[in-house]
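Inverse folding, one chain.
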């Protein structure tokens, strides 16, 4: 996507130094009703992305960087509840510093134009974020989790263009 290169010019919140992903088990057809940090790392590895760290946002969380330098977070939610071990949801996020000139109206436009992610801002700490949430209840394939990460990365780049007021998004 052409916008990804421009998005790199935005200040991505650096959260950790890159490291190689250790060998993890990934099988595209495996059904997951919950995930562990190992599952999240396996998705990062399968995507060919760089694993940066784990545990920064809870026990079941990883920080990774894609091939364009976009840093993203995979955070397990609803963990170890209702008799299910592991996390039954995944919050996927890309975070940037708020760009100069961003308005509440552009945030609303981004949410309308790119509904596959939630576009939000925390003005108190200067963070612009894009979130995609995946519920694992009743099971999803590992391939579906991988696809959702790719949707986050592609759609957040487009939504960032809307926030900037770029044409064509």
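Residues assigned per position:
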């Amino acid at each position: 996507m052409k916008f990804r290169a421009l998005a790199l010019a935005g200040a991505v919140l650096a959260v950790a130094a890159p490291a190689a992903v250790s060998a993890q088990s990934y099988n595209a057809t495996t059904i997951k009703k919950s995930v562990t940090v190992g599952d999240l790392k396996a998705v990062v590895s399968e995507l060919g992305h760089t694993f940066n760290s784990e545990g920064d946002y809870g026990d079941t969380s990883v920080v990774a960087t894609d091939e364009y330098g976009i840093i993203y977070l995979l955070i397990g939610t609803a963990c170890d509840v209702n008799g299910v071990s592991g996390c039954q949801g995944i919050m996927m996020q890309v975070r940037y510093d708020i760009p100069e000139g961003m308005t509440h109206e552009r945030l609303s436009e981004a949410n309308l134009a790119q509904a596959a992610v939630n576009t939000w801002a925390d003005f108190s700490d200067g963070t612009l974020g894009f979130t995609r949430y995946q519920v694992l209840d009743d099971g999803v394939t590992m391939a579906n989790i991988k696809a959702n990460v790719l949707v986050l990365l592609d759609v957040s780049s487009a939504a960032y263009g809307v926030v900037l007021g770029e044409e064509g998004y």
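The longest strand covers residues 87-97. The radius of gyration is 16 Å.
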